[in-house]
Design brief:
The complex is a heterodimer of chains A (307) and B (443).
Chain A: H1 17-39, H2 41-64, H3 75-85, H4 93-105, H5 121-132, H6 134-137, H7 157-164, H8 170-175, H9 187-199, H10 206-221, H11 226-231, H12 235-242, H13 253-273, H14 280-288, H15 291-297
Helix pairs in contact in A: 1-2, 1-3, 1-9, 2-3, 2-4, 3-4, 3-5, 4-5, 5-14, 9-12, 10-12, 10-13, 13-14
Chain B: H1 15-18, E1 22-24, E2 30-34, E3 44-45, E4 52-53, E5 58-61, E6 70-71, E7 76-85, E8 91-98, H2 122-131, H3 144-147, E9 158-163, H4 172-179, H5 181-195, E10 199-205, H6 209-221, E11 231-236, H7 245-253, E12 268-272, H8 273-285, E13 291-297, E14 305-310, H9 315-320, E15 329-334, E16 341-343, E17 356-361, H10 378-382, H11 389-397, H12 401-406, H13 417-421, H14 428-442
Parallel strand pairs in B: 1-14, 9-10, 9-12, 10-11, 13-17
Antiparallel strand pairs in B: 2-8, 3-5, 4-7, 5-6, 7-8, 13-14, 15-16, 15-17
Classes of the chains: A mainly alpha (307), B alpha/beta (443).
Function (chain B): Part of a membrane-bound complex that couples electron transfer with translocation of ions across the membrane.
Keywords (chain B): 4Fe-4S, Cell membrane, Electron transport, Iron, Iron-sulfur, Membrane, Metal-binding, Repeat, Translocase, Transport
Pfam family, one (chain B): RnfC_N
């Protein structure tokens, strides 16, 4: 009789890379559907195009680099989804395709594929789009504009606040019927997904809490409205789904605090003192660069060893 | 409830056997006594092919300090002395005894039988334990005699009796605590006497409430034997690896064993409950360690049992007494599912380390695809030693053994929590073992 030989342990818990990617996508589903509800079918088409382009690019890169096909692990699809959720709903379709291709090739595959990239691939794609197509990336369709109910374009709440001192009601920010990226406007739907990820133990609480907490405290210190800054822009999408990206965030508990606090400081500095209304993307990309260093200097103290 | 930091909560799968009384297995007609069953030095054979040996006769021994002699577990004739497979993976010199099933010869009674613990000196306890070949029966197989002989400069204040049994499936220690509680306590008192320790604490996981109750009764109801103050039974959280020596000490006493050190460096000696029973039997009855309790369980076993088995009985003989294997039996493991060793043959014998024979059916065996590390940090958050397992694995895998050492690779106790939670299914423990091996070879 032949028995299977393999090293211990012989039992595993039920989380695998693929399952985790799928759960994160599931958690993004409310915000994605919300985006389609607020911004119409063009948002749905952007999401689909982005996901398909990301997966197709991953497949082509796998073949070209003669590596194992990795599209089934779900990471490329997740990158495509995240990218689509942080672009303007009125973006021309070909641009999101470019963004997804850039995200997968430059943001991920050239570093060595899943697990080896330094920067969050979706944000790399978004940074590319912001640099290549700045006008389209900052033209915001108003929520429900597709139904012809309201003005076609409108500033995002953060831009309105920054450039014309105009506030937006907390309730509107909470529901999400405001201008902005496809998946970032509804605090309610993002919280739903984020809390689900925390409940399932997929993400660690330290990064979102330290990130959001820092933004709240610092905006209060600089006499801005902390609640507005928590609810507006891409902060919740970033805090729950982008900053917590495993590959590009620290692996130690202490490191997660540093990462979250650092990104929070950057968001407030960019939002309040720079020429840009929003700083979530750059805050996370900037902190991504420090992750290897943070991991190195926040090693936990081994049990039974002195400092 | 007391416990240590981090660790995991696997499903325990103990219900199959935790209610089954320990049954004495049928004495086999043939036993294979491996000459290396302990941590430390191997034994030299004391018998030749063709010799007649008696039940309990010492057949292997060495003069090295860290060692334990081995004994014949049946009476019979030595038919072979050759290298045979060890359940831990290598081939070691072994003595094969074939008997007639006649066990009539009585073992000599102990000289201490009629004496109370107070009247036995620590030297006599150590001598009896050494002669009986007792090792740590929780699985670490560290010679008990060495543990009971702490260096003069190390003051032992506490004996921790390990009744955690945190590995899933295994119920041997649980049954021992229920059925042999008095002997567990007697053995613990002997250990305390040998180490001149004033305090004995029994640590038991909360999923064995009945054992905690029984132990508490024994400890409280025998005040006249309670020559040591502070006999205490502590309930510990059910969490793996609570039974790891360092975790147990941290949980019960909040002391950290120094890196590279032993429990005695923090004034503690840890003894497994099964070892305590063996020590009591060795001292009071003169019995050498020739039998141990083995849990035979898993979805690949027809009738799971807790058996009192003679050391040297082959897995095949034992599994036959448990209704045999199921048709879909796929993986045979010596020990628990977290740290046990997969077997390729059923011809290996039970050794002193065999707490469990676990057979899993195909449906319970996971053969998963290995992904690259996605840096999720789960291993870091669950490592009870506070290591960074993903780094250790990466360093070992890429041959950077000095980095591996610098990041604490030698502190890993190979409990497997990191692999259990790893979504990329990276064989971290296997890589850490490789790293440790290379470091030993480099020295």
């Amino acid at each position: 009789m032949n028995f299977l030989l393999s090293p211990a342990p012989h039992i595993r818990d039920n989380k695998s890379v693929t399952i985790i990617m799928c759960v994160v996508m599931l958690a993004l589903l409310p915000a994605t559907l919300g985006g389609v509800y607020f911004f119409g079918w063009s948002a749905a088409i952007l999401v689909l195009l982005s996901v398909i382009s990301a997966v197709a690019t991953e497949l082509v890169m796998n073949k070209m680099m003669k590596r194992e096909v990795s599209i089934m692990d779900g990471s490329a699809a997740l990158t495509g989804l995240l990218l689509a959720l942080c672009v303007s709903p009125s973006l021309p379709y070909y641009q999101v395709v470019f963004g997804a291709i850039f995200a997968i090739i430059i943001g991920k595959q050239l570093f060595g594929g899943l697990g080896f990239n330094v920067f969050n691939p979706a944000l790399v794609g978004r940074a590319f789009l912001a640099a290549a197509f700045p006008v389209h990336m900052t033209t915001w369709a108003n929520a429900f504009a597709y139904r012809g109910l309201d003005a076609v374009t409108q500033a995002t709440p953060l831009a309105a606040m920054k450039f014309s001192g105009q506030g937006t009601s907390y309730l509107a920010l909470f529901y999400g019927n405001v201008g902005g990226c496809i998946g970032e406007t509804s605090v309610l739907l993002l919280l739903l997904g984020g809390l689900y990820l925390l409940y399932k133990g997929i993400i660690d609480w330290r990064i979102p809490i330290s990130y959001l907490g820092t933004v709240a405290v610092l905006s209060f210190v600089f006499k801005a409205d902390p609640i507005f800054h928590l609810l507006a822009g891409g902060l919740l999408l970033g805090a729950f789904f982008m900053a917590t990206d495993y590959v590009t965030s620290p692996i130690t508990a202490k490191g997660m605090w540093i990462f979250g606090i650092g990104a929070g400081i950057l968001v407030v500095i960019i939002r309040l003192f720079s020429g840009l209304p929003e700083g979530v993307m750059y805050s996370i990309l900037f902190m991504n660069a420090f992750v290897p260093l943070i991991n190195r200097y926040t090693r936990p103290r081994i049990l039974g060893r002195k400092k | 409830m007391k416990t240590f930091a981090k660790g995991i909560h696997p499903s325990y799968c103990k219900n199959e056997t935790k209610g089954l009384r320990i049954v004495e297995a049928i004495a086999p007609l043939k036993v294979i006594i491996l000459l290396h069953q302990n941590l430390g030095a191997s034994c030299e054979p004391l018998v030749k092919v063709g010799d007649d040996v008696a039940l309990g006769q010492k057949i292997g021994e060495t003069s090295k300090f860290v060692s334990a002699p081995v004994h014949a577990s049946i009476a019979g004739k030595v038919t072979k002395i050759e290298k045979l497979p060890h359940p831990c993976g290598t081939n070691v010199l072994s003595i094969v005894i074939e008997g007639s099933g006649d066990d009539s010869r009585k073992l000599e009674n102990s000289i201490f039988e009629s004496r109370g613990i107070e009247n036995i000196s620590h030297l006599e306890i150590r001598a009896a334990v050494k002669e009986a070949g007792i090792v740590g029966l929780g699985g670490a197989v560290f010679p008990a005699y060495v543990k009971l002989s702490p260096p003069k400069d190390k003051k032992i204040d506490t004996i921790l009796v390990n009744g955690c049994e945190c590995e899933p499936y295994i119920t041997a220690d649980h049954r021992i605590m229920l059925e042999r509680a008095e002997d567990v306590v007697k053995g613990a008192k002997l250990v305390a006497k040998a180490c001149n320790a004033g305090r004995i604490i029994f640590g038991v996981e909360a999923n064995k409430k009945d054992a905690i109750k029984v132990l508490r009764e024994v400890v409280r109801h025998k005040p006249e034997e309670g020559i040591y103050d502070g006999l205490e039974v502590v309930e510990l959280a059910t969490k793996y690896p609570q039974g790891g020596e360092k975790m147990l000490i941290k949980a019960v006493l909040d002391r950290a064993v120094p890196s590279g050190g032993l429990p005695l460096d923090v004034g503690v000696v840890v003894a497994n409950v099964g070892s305590c029973v063996a020590i009591a039997e060795a001292v009071f009855m003169g019995l050498p360690l020739i039998k141990r309790v083995v849990t035979v369980t898993g979805s690949g076993i027809c009738e799971p049992k807790n058996l009192l088995v003679r050391i040297g009985t082959t897995f095949k003989d034992i599994i036959e007494q448990c209704g045999g294997l199921t048709a879909d039996a796929y993986k045979v493991i010596m020990g628990g599912p977290m740290m046990g060793v997969a077997q390729y043959t059923l011809d290996v014998p039970v050794v002193k380390a065999t707490s469990c024979i676990l057979v899993l059916a195909k449906k319970d065996v996971e053969e998963e695809k290995i992904y690259p590390c996605i840096k999720c940090g789960r291993c870091v958050r669950n490592c009870p030693m506070n290591l960074v397992p993903t780094r250790l694995a990466a360093y070992a895998n890429s041959g950077k053994f000095s980095d591996f050492d610098e990041w604490g690779g030698q502190d890993c106790m190979e409990c497997g929590c990191c692999v259990y939670v790893c979504p990329a299914k990276i064989p971290i423990v296997q890589l850490v073992k490789l790293g440790k091996l290379k470091l030993r070879q480099m020295k």
